[in-house]
Design brief:
The complex is a heterodimer of chains A (299) and B (166). Chain A is built from 4 helices and 12 strands, in the order ααααββββββββββββ. Chain A is α+β, with helices and mostly antiparallel strands and 299 residues long. Chain A folds into 3 domains: 11-53; 71-116; 119-276, Thrombin, subunit H (Beta Barrel), CATH 2.40.10.340. Chain B has one domain (2-158): Arp2/3 complex 21 kDa subunit ARPC3. Chain B contains 9 helices and no strands. The longest helix of chain B has 26 residues, at 100-125. Classes of the chains: A alpha+beta (299), B mainly alpha (166).
Chain lengths: 299, 166
């Protein structure tokens, strides 16, 4: 086959090489998972990958513009008319909201309550969804250069979709709310019952936990951010209760679905929200985390 | 693509094929767990036929890039690719002398071991990681079935390989 001696012999000692590389990998994995100490390496590699990612996102954009161009004039006119009406309605509402906001601020001052932090939003576009089935993330085209920081919430036009978990210079990774073990403090907007919403993995319903008065809940109730943790601003819609499983023995399971469609839109908003409290992030105890249940053969 | 690769020198061919495989891996389709890892199978080809040029270091670097791209734990794909590289070097003669069908089976063994070792490492380290047996077996099967195609596409680039054929 080959004239030269087989690779097993002229490569030196492959076993030694293997053990060196494998231990290097394990070191990296543990440094990444336990100590988050590899961000610099990641950022360096990302610099190389970024041009390819941007180049690859172009065809999709081209198709979008092409389909826009192919739309007939009359449909466009109808769309524009519809949007003008929508903008008029929204600006009326927003004027009213501004009025309410000022009133609210004054009342808060009178009652000596803590002031709500005002924040800006930053429009952004999804570059791609990483091909990683074990975690639910998307990558957006704003990064440190645009003032995006770790921990900022990300929303679509309908509701919260996730949180920034890693920033690079020109891009950032967003962990969606359906990611396993992600948690958002929420309250039921109808009656103010507080709880925490946990992600259960890809396309699984979200799980509402730590609810005191389960009897007050109903299918179809809206959950909004409560703002208690300081990470998410208060009052943004997150999810709707879809099913309440009351069982005598195992407790109650409350399934919810996100208000925002997590897998549909290209354009999102980063809420440039700097939490007002300086309290450290709470550590989720192991007893609360999802149990390790291997699904061998269940599928 | 065959004609594209035909006149390339071997280094450019290797680089280009790995780049194309990487781009295929970057497409949104791959967020489905059941689809094959193109980089893995192309890497296996080059390590099998050009162990002097494409070695464990290449596998390691490619794995790191794949980890950053898929926002996985840094090093998990690198670990898988290195195990693949080692197994290919170790079973070099056995795979090269096997008949085409046995070659597919041998490749299946290698990629299956890669997927199993990745799943086990994740399972030990990450408490919330869940997987099913399908997530391991289906991609390995598709990768093994891709092998004859990859071999045909890549082995035809110039006299580099055909010279060494018996």
């Amino acid at each position: 086959m080959f004239q030269s001696p087989p690779a097993l012999f002229n490569q030196g000692a492959p076993l030694l090489k293997l053990s060196v590389f494998v231990s290097l990998c394990l070191l990296l994995i543990i440094a990444d998972y336990q100590f988050r100490a590899t961000e610099q390496i990641r950022a360096t590699l990302q610099i190389v990958l970024y041009p390819i990612q941007i180049a690859l996102s172009q065809p999709g954009k081209l198709i979008d513009t092409a389909s826009d161009n192919l739309r007939s004039l009359s449909t466009m006119k109808a769309v524009i008319e519809q949007q003008t009406i929508q903008i008029q309605n929204l600006s009326l509402l927003s004027n009213h909201a501004e009025h309410l906001e000022i009133e609210n601020a004054n009342l808060r001052k009178l009652l000596a309550l803590q002031q709500q932090v005002a924040f800006k939003t930053l429009a952004t576009e999804i570059i791609y969804k990483p091909s990683n089935w074990a975690s639910q993330k998307i990558v957006i085209n704003r990064g440190l250069a645009d003032g995006v920081n770790v921990g900022m919430p990300v929303a679509s036009d309908t509701g919260i979709i996730g949180q920034i978990i890693r920033v690079f210079q020109y891009s950032a990774e967003v962990s969606l709310i359906e990611e396993r073990d992600s948690a958002i403090p929420v309250l039921v907007s109808r009656n103010g019952v507080r709880g925490a919403l946990f992600g259960m993995g890809r396309a699984e319903p979200l799980d509402l936990r730590f609810i005191n008065s389960i009897g007050d809940l109903d299918v179809g109730d809206y959950l909004t951010t409560s703002g208690i943790d300081g990470t998410y601003p208060a009052g943004f819609p997150v999810a709707i209760i879809t099913k309440i499983d009351r069982s005598e023995t195992a407790g109650t399971f409350i399934s919810c679905r996100p208000v925002a469609n997590l897998n549909r839109f290209r354009h999102l908003m980063v809420l440039l929200y700097q939490p007002s409290s300086s309290a450290p992030n709470p550590i989720i105890p192991d007893s609360v985390k999802n149990k390790k249940t291997s699904k061998w053969g269940n599928k | 693509m065959k004609s594209l690769l035909n006149n390339m020198s071997s280094y450019r061919g290797i680089f280009l094929s790995l780049l194309i495989a990487f781009i295929l891996n970057m497409t949104p389709l791959r967020s489905n767990p059941l689809l094959p890892d193109f980089v893995l199978i192309v890497l296996v080809f080059w390590i099998l036929y050009f162990p002097e040029t494409v070695n464990l270091l290449t596998a390691f670097l490619l794995g790191l890039f794949m980890d950053v791209q898929s926002s996985n734990l840094l090093g998990i794909n690198a670990l898988g690719y290195i195990i693949a590289g080692f197994l290919i070097v170790f079973w070099n003669r056995r795979i090269l002398s096997a008949s085409p069908i046995w070659q597919v089976i041998n490749i299946f063994q290698v990629v299956l071991l890669v997927h199993i070792s990745i799943a086990i490492t994740m399972w030990i380290l990450v408490p919330s990681f869940v997987f099913s047996s399908l997530d391991i077996f289906l991609p390995a099967t598709f990768e093994a079935l891709l092998w004859p195609l990859i071999k045909r596409l890549l082995a035809n680039q110039g006299p580099f390989i055909s010279r060494n054929k018996p």
